Amino acid sequence: MTFAEVFAPIAPEVTLLIGVCAVFLIGVSKSAAVRAAVAPLTLLIMLGAMVATATCATTDAAGPVGLAFDELTVYIRWITLAIGLLLLLVNWHVPADGEQGEYFGLMLCSMAGVLLTASANDLVVLFFAIELVSVPTYAMVALSRTDQRASEAALKYFFLGALSAAIMVYGFSFLYGVGGTTTLFATGAVDSLETAFAEGGAINAYAVVGLLLAMSGLAFKVAVVPFHAYAPDVYEGAASPLTGLLGFLPKLAGFVALIRLLSVCQWDLPDSLMWMMWLMAAATMTVGNVLALLQTNVKRILAYSSVSHSGFMMIGLLVGPVLGEGPMHDGVAAVLFYIAVYGMMNLGAFAVLAMLQVRGEAAESLDDLAGLSQRAPVLALAMAVCAFSLMGFPPTAGFLGKVYIFSSAFSLAGDHPFHGPLVTLAVIGVINSAIGAAYYLKIAATCFVRQPREGLGRTEGSMPAFGLAVCSIAMIALFVRPTDLVDRAKNATVSVGQSSNTRVATVDQPHVPHVD
Amino acid sequence: MAEWILTLVILSPLAGVALLMLGGEDRQRLQMTALGMSLVTFALTIVAFVLFHNAIDENGQAGGYHLEKSVAWIGGDSGAEDAPDSASSDIDIRYHVGVDGVSIWLLLLTSFLTPLAVWGSFSGITKRIREYYAFMLLLEVGMLGVFCAMDLLLFYVCFEFTLIPLYFLIGIWGGPEKQKAANKFFIYTVAGSVLTFAGVLYLAYYAFTQIGTFTFDIQTLTSMGQSGAVPIDVQWWLFVAFAAGFAIKVPFFPVHTWLPLAHTEAPTAGSVLLAGVLLKLGTYGFFRLSLPMLPDASFTFAPFMATLAVIGISYAALAAWVQTDVKKLVAYSSVSHLGFCMLGLFSLKMAGVTGSVVYMVNHGLSTGALFLVIGMVYERYHTRDIHQIGGLARPMPWMAFFLVFFTLSSIGLPGLNGFVGEFLVLLGTATSNTETDALAAGPLGYAYAVPAAIGIILGAVYMLWMCQRVLFGPLREPANTPDTSAGLTRDLTLREKLILAPIGVVCVVMGVWPKPVLSTMEPAIAANVFNQVDMDSDQRVALDEADLSVVEAVTVRNSESEGHSL
Which of A335, A368, B97, B179 could bridge across to B6 with cysteines, CB 3.0–4.6 Å? Predict the structure, then answer.
């Protein structure tokens, strides 16, 4: 293979990594003017990566060893880079002067990690890719503000993250032991975990242990109960704009890795693991929502809400893909749609916080938002749109996300043993939406209903406003016209949907009541 | 034109919102913009009404939907006609609007009440005017959308959306306990409607297993329900899920407790639209979705629902009796009256269901007007406490006239609008279990009709007692009142009289001559609810025509005999 053949399919990742080096180098310049160019340069690099994504037709290309490319890869690249742009805009003014190089370089690293996760075809690469997402975020938390709480949060995040990485890699070692290979999927005579699991008939006990450990490690990344405990502290400690990133990139990488792992098992998990995921999903939704109700700090509310949203997405994972049926049936497509929407609405909420300050301090408690609509009506409106979208309320994209997730829950075949439990889970889910409504409403109501307080002001800089505008307008626009994103999400699951036909709900009888 | 008219109706208040947002803060301009745009909406609705009747005249099908417009929203690009057969599109969510003989009247009610509510706010709303009228118009968009929706998901979207503007209307411009009231209102209704949401999705999924399309089309789902394709156990659960959302919205005993608080705290116009239209979204949901799509479960649940309705009628009437806040009293009377609505629906008889739907419109008119009158009194006296005000008939003869008039309309005096619905509901309930050669026996009977009739007497007692205490006897006014600082006069101003007069005229017309309303509604109700009965439709309509003509005869005779005493 020539150099070009190897690197052409991973052009977006390469662009990002070259960008990381450039940004790091320029960031240490002595000239303030050059340092100030770091953020625009980062923007250019990301646009370059998007161009690379658009031009490299990758789906069947053979890239470097350990990578494979399919429709899911392309979809993840697009949403990572597109929402990454918004993340960059919102984070534009976060790093202190002299630290822009590190901060934006690490941000690009983290995104490159997500992109690699989406194309990993090997347990080792998968592990590296996920850590490439997480490790930069530990440092970014510490860099994001000069507060002791930030250092504390970074330390907590790092230790727990390291622990989860260890658990995950331990699980991977079991999977290697069972399969005799680290390759996930392969064509032809090459060994892969997929064929190893398929040949063995049922997944054996070692593989179950391996999957359990690997999923636990990933559960930390996506903040699923009982691995969610770090989220509120870390979110509270980090600067608000960064929190939007923490709620999106690691979660996205975690869900992509989970999709890959479950796809290796052909979405045919042993009942024990299914029940474990069922319990995790139910507990995640409930614990996240109930604890969010008790908070008064908006960042902690949104941290717990982020936990509960992971629970909603777990429903889609349990359903798995159902080939060609679209997001109404396809759990994975529903997750892919939901996470893109979640990334934007969550970022939007944090962007509003980032743009406000109370007597020079960053705004973060509910009281700080009081009467926002009378001080900054547009900001309040954007906050309301994001809050109602997080709530899953029409007319926002968050509502459609809920439509897809919950309707996919019904789509397992009626005689599948998990049909009933999943319907129950959907009911638990909608009840949780109602609980969630209570605290999101508290945020929206504080902005509009309460009397304004003294000292509420805007922060400097206009870039976050652009990011926020896009996030909140997208919530309405995607509600009115979701088709483009939905079709892409649906198309992305084509290659992960190797599920057995027994899962699919079929038409019982050709009974057509005609409408006159 | 005809197919776009409903979309225009729904979107015209949004244009009003845009106009409000664009210009300056000038109070006069904001008020006139809001009033003007809501009047435009009303005019468009009248056009829609005319076009609707033209459509019926042209192609018959008096019971069907007209003025339809369907645009693919999510999924299939195919239209309504071929969707069930085509395998290419397995998801079918559309922007699909249309009206039938029932929803056209509710649409008219909505766009008739909104301008009056907007006009009624001119003197009372003095802060954050721009936002206030924007929320009013947004609320109208949601309400109009519910009545036009022919796609279940669109229905749900509009149904839920109405919560947001009303939440802010109560929360920002409400009384002293506004936050508590707004939160309770929102959480209560959301808690129920998320279960409805699950039910909606499950019903669409069930349609998929039957016909291979994940469809939310209300007509397809209705014919699926009427053809008996949905087994009773599925229907049972779906009925529970739907009822969870709709019953809270109605509000149905025993989940009515949010309503009195919301009403007391809401600004006048919020109360008018809440009582006038929003509560009907619940009963309309039962009528449009539960009864036709889940006929067997509706039959099974009917005695249970009717029992709760009867208890609710009397309980709310007794609760209203002891209220000292006039607004709270009327709020409880709403709970009681909507019990009648539910009773009529679950009689599952033509007369009862027709009565119930007529009742929805009439209750909207008379209760909306009552809230307006009470709001006018409140603006002058800053209290609604029955102990603090009294004998107001002498200083405020116009107000007294309207209060008595709408009270009489509300308690169902023959000759005014309330009577028609009430009578039909009781007739339908009482004769529900008589099996005729055409219709199977319904679930209810005299055991339900008699206690409900006692509820009517209670209603007359507390409403008239309220009138007596507020209007007659020695004059009682709180110190330093009436407050005429907002440009009000002692008695009603011309503006206020002009707000109430149109409602009064409609009340009389509907009471004396309900025939046009009934004759448009009947075929639509027959097509919606009674299609599953295996019989010739002409025969059935003829049968129920007999019921209805009795009522009309009684109404006309009564109005003649009462004419001079009024």
Answer: B97
